[in-house]
Structures are given as C-alpha cells and as structure tokens.
Amino acid sequence: MCESRVLIERGGEEGGRELLMEDVATVEVSGEEIKLRGIFGETKNVTGRIKEINLMSHTIVIK
After folding, report:
1. Taking the domains of the chain in order of start, what are their residue ranges?
2. Which of 42-48's residues contact partners 24+ apart within 8 Å by CB, and which partners?
3. Three-point CA angle 15, 17, 22, nearest 5°
4. What is the helix, strand, coil percentage profile of the chain, to 5?
5. H or E segment and range at residue 45
C-alpha cells in the first residue's frame, strides 16, 4: 500500500509538526483548500499549502 501520513507544520520548524491524518489515499488541492481522503472514505478539509511531499517516507507536510 502507498498511503501517506499528512503532517501540519504550525511553528515553522520540524519540531512544530503534528499528525493531521493517516492512511491518506487522495489529496485534492483547490487554491488554499486541501481535501484529504483516507482509504476508508473519511475526509478532512484543511486550509494551507503543501510544503513538502516525501515519497520515500510517505509523508506530506502542509503549512
């Protein structure tokens, strides 16, 4: 499986990251609105921008 964890960066440093959602299968971006959809259909909407996508560690960082 290739699901990702989505982290949100609040303090501007790596120590300021917290888990927002796990097992994310789909990410849809429309302006500053980001819609996350999990493998079981759960969704979460967040405002921000994608700062980093790391395919090796399956993580997405939103700022």
Report:
1. 4-62
2. 44/20, 46/8, 46/20, 48/8
3. 140
4. 5, 65, 30
5. strand 43-47
C-alpha span between 26 and 10 (Å, rounded) = 22
Q: Tell me the per-residue pLDDT of 2-17, one tens digit each, with 9 for 90 and over.
A: 799 999 998 755 568 9
Residue 31 three-state SS: coil
pTM of the model: 0.86
pLDDT tens-place string over residues 15-55: 689 999 999 999 999 999 999 999 999 999 999 999 999 99
